[in-house]
Amino acid sequence: MRTHPSPAIRTATPADQQTVSDLLAEAFLHGDLADWLIPHLDTRARIYPHYFALHVEHALTYGHIDMTADATAVAIWYAIDGEPLPELPDYTQRLAEVTGRFQPRFAALDQVMHDHHPYDQPHHYLAFLAVHPDQQRHGLGSTLLQNHHTRLDATRTAAHLEATGPRNRRLYVRHGYRAQPMFHLSAGGPPLHPMRRPRVGAQAFR
């Protein structure tokens, strides 16, 4: 069987902000939460690049972004140790300007994820794992996970994320994540599935 070489992975820089924002927008355009956030596809396609640009700006400031050298896959991580991360200056206003009448849904997403996050348990948080739609099912997401997990295991650090559907839950289970009690974005809204990967030698966050 012919195997493909593992793609080169590098750390994103501010020069990559537009590229990473566009990649996230394309990867999540039809994602599990997309219809709930913005029901209309054309409107979503217009808003998403600007929405994800806020997240990329935040990650470049406070987190860490791994990306494949050909910019077809990206992972955004944050080191969490005891307290929430700072917001971008004027984030609430900027989010409202970007998302318009859909702002309440995006604000609700931010709030419920904040309310359920285990800030008191040191870990790395996987905020986004995205692969370009044309390159999905080729192992790029697994490659990015394995790359970061090597660092986590070397420092005996746990990991946490929220899966949004069965497909990505299965991916994360294969990489050692364990399901936690799910929660919903709102009454009747879509579920989120917290998952955690214990640090090496531990059975849970310690």
Automatic annotation (TrEMBL):
Question: Where does the record place the N-acetyltransferase domain?
Answer: 65-200
Where does the record place a coiled coil?
Answer: none
Lineage: superkingdom = Bacteria
Q: Which UniProt keywords apply?
A: Transferase
Instruction: Give me the ranges of the annotated region Disordered.
Output: 184-206
> InterPro entries, per this entry?
Acyl_CoA_acyltransferase, GNAT_dom, Trichothecene_AcTrans
Q: Name one Pfam family in it.
A: Acetyltransf_7
Under Gene Ontology molecular function, one entry of this record is:
acyltransferase activity, transferring groups other than amino-acyl groups
Q: Which PANTHER family match?
A: GNAT FAMILY ACETYLTRANSFERASE, N-ACETYLTRANSFERASE DOMAIN-CONTAINING PROTEIN
Q: What is this protein called?
A: Acetyltransferase (GNAT) domain-containing protein
- Please tell me the species this chain comes from: Actinoplanes regularis
Q: What is the lineage of its organism?
A: Bacteria, Bacillati, Actinomycetota, Actinomycetes, Micromonosporales
